[in-house]
Design brief:
single chain, 214 residues, mainly beta, Jelly Rolls, seven-stranded antiparallel beta sheet, seven-stranded mixed beta sheet, 2 helices, disordered N terminus
Length: 214
């Protein structure tokens, strides 16, 4: 009967649609856990640890001429939960540097989202949301070391140092804008505070990281 087919289509549409208010936790730092996170070291070690800052449990990152990050492999369906949410606070930026060059490719705070190409590594792409020292907010540029990652300055400069900033990005829309491709899944998320190229030092704090439907 037609009404049976109509009901089935309605049910299937409901199952495919994002649930109102749906969230997926990536970094539950406020719960005092780093479960699921692994470390990748590139040059010396940035010190990551859970601390209490401003009355809240957060992830602290201290880097001195170092470059290591924490990453978590998670498959996120951007059709259901396209919005990446996080908060961060930065104590200092890194002075007068050119962040588009290898010598200046350092950031007091950044969050990566990575979509994997599987066996086809050339299809792997990443967006690095950064707190820039000199590049203007909302400016994007190619990563100095690989063309498969693009940098996007979400915050910049010293004006908001020492303040907790709440961030929210439509990751699927950012991939469309920056790479011209419609990405369905995110496969990994990373946080990184690095100062190895400039030989500087920086301290940053990261609040909970999660994806949401709205």
């Amino acid at each position: 009967m037609d009404w049976c087919r109509t009901l089935l289509l309605i049910l299937l549409a409901a199952l495919a649609a994002p649930a109102y208010g749906e969230t997926i936790s990536v970094g539950a730092f406020s719960q005092g856990t780093l479960d699921g996170w692994e470390e990748e070291r590139f040059a010396n070690r940035t010190d990551y640890r859970l601390v209490t800052e401003d009355g809240r449990k957060v992830l602290q990152a201290k880097s001195k001429s170092a470059a290591s990050g924490l990453y978590r492999e998670m498959r996120i369906d951007l059709e259901r939960t396209p919005y990446l949410n996080w908060s961060w606070k930065v104590d200092n930026t890194l002075g007068d540097l050119d962040e588009t060059t290898r010598q200046g490719d350092d950031y007091p705070a950044r969050i990566y989202v990575v979509t994997s190409g599987g066996l086809f590594f050339w299809n792997t792409h990443a967006i690095s949301y950064v707190w820039a020292s000199r590049q203007a907010r909302e400016k994007d540029w190619p990563n100095a070391f690989t063309g498969r990652a693009l940098m996007l300055a979400v915050q910049s400069g010293d004006e908001r140092l020492g303040q907790w900033i709440e961030e929210r990005r439509d990751v699927r829309a950012d991939f469309r804008c920056l790479f011209g491709s419609d990405v369905r899944y995110i496969d990994a998320i990373a946080v990184m505070t690095d100062t190895d190229n400039t030989g500087g030092q920086a301290t940053a704090y990261y609040g909970d990281v999660y994806f949401s439907a709205d």
